[in-house]
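INFO  loader      accepted 1 record
INFO  loader      residues=382
INFO  predictor   begin
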Amino acid sequence: MSTDDVEKTTNEAVKGLKGIIAADSSICLVNGTEGKLLYRGYNIDELADHATFEEVSFLLLNGELPTPSQLTEYQDNLKQYRAIEPELIEALKKLPTEALPMALLRTITSMAGVYDPDAESETFEKRLQISMRLISQIPTIVAAIHRVRKGLEPVAPDLSLSHSGNFMYMLNGEKPSEDATRAMDLILTVHAEHGLNASTFTGRVVIATLPDIYSAVTAAIGALKGKLHGGANTEVLKTLFEIGSVENIAPYVKKVREAKGKFMGFGHAVYQVEDPRAKHLKELSRRLGEETGNPKWYEMSVEMEKLVFAEISRNCNVDFYSASLQHYMGIPGELFTCIFAASRIAGWCAHILEQLDGNKIIRPKAHYIGYEERAYVSIGQR
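INFO  predictor   done
INFO  writer      dumping tokens
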């Protein structure tokens, strides 16, 4: 049903635009009834099991999986763009270290557009180049934010490492294990795209006015910063820390149910069945729990998943196991939403490019519920 059809039949606004078709898109299919997620027609299960984030981001931008030669060229392009301008590092160091990481990411990403001489270009080739630049540089900015907030110097990119391996290296300052690299690659892959979510739609609305791509991405980051969009996995980790042990899970679940509270990381606005992304993160959380010799957080998550489902019949979503997984990777909870942005930048840019192809400014109509026309009353008579 189109927006016009809704208006004709109900003459009422649809809160949150739920169910409203706002764009034609060939990028992503989210089937909440069947629990199916497709990127450009490829099932997330197959991509999670077999593809790298470089392949997935190429797919999202270009519509097809890369050939071996295309992948090599694309990887070389991403490596070429990894380093950010020294002025951005200096600007970051001057910002308050107590500022939220997402606020810092929003600010430095906006500044990055000032230093890109091609930022205002309107050719497809330059816009695609800017997209690759952002996919490569957002992880560098996130890693720099993490280290500067800890009083450490940012780590320069290592061109011998993959996109995900280099991201882990820049975050922690040491070469990651194979499982840790795989974990980051999987996190980036399963979060890379998810239809017209709030941040993606924000990016499309902004780019439709024809500013530069950095403006649209900065706006998308601002939307992701919101508590109702990003950050659920941060809350999941806080909950695990609060509970402390497997033995405390059952009392916690009972307490939350009695208080009619909410279980973070369970249920989804779209999926009515299991979130197809969750199982992939669950398995890697198990493996890293074993690798680190501290399986407690994974075991707590498994027990909570079981007991919460028994109580409310809701499956966990992608945020639930990403909490314990990223904790095992040495990533602090306050950085989780920035990691999300480093992944979703691929989807944002794909949608921005799609919106620009045959663009029309997005200008919906409001259902007016205010006063009818009334007479002005002078100040002395009010």
